[in-house]
Design brief:
664 residues, two-stranded parallel ribbon, alpha/beta
Length: 664
């Protein structure tokens, strides 16, 4: 059920009240306990000898985080900005986790833990077992909540990891009880059952005033990735989501099943003519088509696990949440009606009941993919999908202990690869052949733009270009060696001279067969680097157990092809750091981020895949976008449906259009 305006106002007030409370609480802890001023002044650790061992550990960890946020700069101005950022992150993480507990309680995934404060059923049971040994009520409650977070971290990894930077502080008793009072307001009870609630909470964490200030201060293009994320944070209304998903993913399955699907009734916004005809394989539509008849070219049925959907600017995953509904139907129908689907599971002896129980996990593990430049977004997106799966299991009366474990998601943050330059050099030097080290360094360098370019970063092109350039250089070199014409030229040259001439040190490659599988070796090296760097940085906790490491997860998603791309992308100017890159790489669509995202989305699609988007409508009539319309929208794709929506759809002064394109 879509969340209406009155409920959105309630959520907005809740988030505003909670953010103010938590930032005041943690700001006070910064200053009065840990010697960190909001103005960037930081007391020496030697002056904090009165703190307990645990408090000293926290004080040191806070200082390390601040230096990281300030990019190693010790100036007061940089530290003040870092303090503000860290304070915001801790407040956000705290609110997010407590909201997640409310959502989990409603889905019967855990005992009531915060719904009645100290009188919550789960806490009372804990007290009976633990006894009075853990101190007063507050101390016992903190211990209990930390144990709940640890339990949830088994399913949701980094989101509930108590060692994460955003979880370094905990509200003191007065603030904690006030937070619970806000969350347990009776007028909000029905909202904890809604999958969209956590997304709206993320939306409202950055207030309208904050967005206005950012625009006024920068005076045009966003100055950095955070401004780009916050300024383009517009929640997609449910009816727009349904319109785009029905006419892309819904249409795809409708065509694959030749209309024999429950989605025909479920997808009420699927645009259809009065009469429909599904063409046979290789059959052409009549030369003079009947304007009242839809002619659908033949589309082969695919195993639902292979039908991939990508949201390249996923936010809190609202397209994915509705797509989840459709995928569940697709899985059930494929099992019941198409014996060729899931042949591996059938051969392994899986029963229908067992299969139905696995569906929510399979949808998350195989189908729904998302990328965002804001790490908080990607965590919210994964949490939203996890909660959606819990709802399905609850409705099927599957007890929490019997619910399948979700092993991986396909949600990635577009961010630079982890690791400092010195660690990169050490890792690259350890690789054999050394050419792999050159490749890893080239990808690492280009990934520095990921935080601002996001899904527009053509990192897959970087990989292919590096491989092609090195192989071409090797071909030329080996031919010249065979002819002996350049034998003396290379004989006495150092590795550095060789790389200066050809770009890569290719002398260790002795035979053409060594190039076979070089791409897989490079991907393995990149994965190994990301994992090693995360371990060194102490950030190795993943959202789900088998998720790829940060940085590599983004590369992995960029290399896949998709059947459906759905998005509400950013619009307007690119962030300052990526503006030139986008101008160079998206020459035909560079005048607006929205059009660049459309070009990128079409590139990521399989042939005859569908792209659904809501964007600014100006890209469809301004003369500055002529090449985009003529060479991309009408040449590389064909419009399927188009709705000119005008003002008032998104929470911004922008006229919008919602449309679906089919890649030709």
């Amino acid at each position: 059920m879509a969340i209406g305006k009155d409920d959105r106002r309630r959520i907005e007030k809740l988030v505003g009240d909670c953010r103010a409370l938590l930032e005041a609480e943690f700001g006070a802890q910064f200053q009065t306990i840990f010697g960190i001023g909001l103005d960037g002044s930081i007391a020496d650790m030697n002056t904090l000898g009165h703190l307990s061992d645990n408090e000293q550990r926290i004080a040191l960890a806070l200082r390390q985080e601040l230096l990281h946020y300030a990019e190693g700069k010790a100036e007061k101005k940089a530290l003040a900005a870092a303090t503000e950022k860290l304070l915001r992150e801790i407040a956000f993480t705290t609110l997010n986790r407590f909201a997640a507990l409310k959502l989990c309680e409603r889905r019967e995934f855990l005992f009531e833990s915060i719904g009645s404060g100290y009188s919550s059923r789960g806490f009372e049971l804990y007290c009976r077992l633990a006894g009075p040994s853990l101190g007063e009520s507050y101390q016992r409650y903190v211990c209990y909540l930390e144990s709940v977070f640890d339990e949830l971290s088994l399913d949701l990894g980094a989101l509930f990891d108590r060692r994460a930077p955003g979880a370094i502080l905990f509200p003191r008793e007065k603030a904690l009880l006030a937070l619970l009072e806000f969350l347990n307001d009776a007028s909000l009870n029905h909202l904890w059952a809604e999958d969209e609630t956590i997304g709206w909470m993320y939306q409202y964490f950055n207030s309208k005033d904050e967005r206005r200030e950012m625009r006024a201060e920068s005076g045009g293009a966003p100055r950095n990735s955070r401004e780009l994320a916050v300024r383009n944070q517009f929640f997609t209304p449910r009816y727009v989501v349904r319109f785009l998903v029905d006419n892309s993913l819904g249409r795809l399955w409708y065509e694959m099943t030749r209309g024999e699907t429950g989605l025909s009734d479920m997808c009420t916004l699927l645009v259809r003519k009065p009469h429909v005809r599904f063409l046979a394989k290789d059959e052409k539509a009549p030369a003079s088509e009947d304007e009242n008849t839809d002619y659908h070219p033949y589309r082969a049925l695919k195993d639902p696990r292979e039908i991939r959907m990508l949201d390249p600017a996923c936010g809190s995953m609202h397209f994915g949440l509705y797509a989840f509904d459709l995928y569940e139907v697709m899985y059930r129908e494929a099992w019941d009606r198409s014996p060729e689907c899931f042949s591996d599971l059938r051969a392994a002896g899986m029963s229908r009941d067992e299969f139905l129980k696995r569906i929510p996990a399979m949808v998350i593990e195989h189908n729904i993919h998302g990328i965002d430049i804001d790490r908080r977004c990607t965590q919210i997106a994964a949490l939203s999908l996890w909660l959606r799966a819990q709802r399905s299991w609850k409705e099927a009366a599957i007890p929490a202990a019997s619910r399948p474990k979700i092993l991986k998601s396909n949600i990635a943050c577009a961010e630079p690869m982890p690791g400092e330059a010195t660690f990169l050099e050490e890792y690259a030097a350890s690789l054999k052949p050394s050419l792999l080290g050159d490749f890893v360094k080239a990808v690492w360098q280009d990934m520095r733009l990921a935080g601002e370019a996001g899904s527009l970063l053509k990192i897959d092109d970087t990989i292919q270009s590096a491989l092609k350039k090195a192989k071409t250089a090797w071909d030329v070199w080996t031919k010249d060696i065979q002819k002996r014409s350049l034998a003396g030229l290379f004989e006495d040259r150092s590795s550095d001279d060789f790389k200066a001439m050809l770009g890569y040190d290719i002398r260790e490659i002795k035979d053409v067969s060594e190039w076979e599988g070089m791409e897989l070796k490079l991907l393995s090296a990149l994965k190994g680097f990301a994992e090693a760097a995360q371990t060194v940085n102490g950030t190795g906790k993943r959202l789900f157990a088998d998720d790829a490491a940060a940085g590599f997860a983004f590369i992995d998603l960029c290399r896949k092809c998709y059947d459906v791309v759905l998005m509400n992308p950013p619009f307007g100017e690119a962030a300052a750091g990526s503006k030139q890159y986008i101008a160079d790489e998206y020459e035909r669509s560079k005048n607006d981020l929205a059009s660049a995202f459309i070009e990128m989305g079409l590139k990521r699609l399989e042939r005859r895949g569908y792209l659904g988007a809501i964007t600014t409508r100006t890209i469809f009539f301004l003369s500055s976008h002529t090449r985009f319309r003529e060479e991309i929208v009408l040449k590389e794709a064909k419009p399927v449906v188009f709705a000119d929506l005008g003002f008032g759809v998104l929470d911004a002064m922008v006229e919008t259009a919602a449309y679906v394109l089919e890649k030709v």
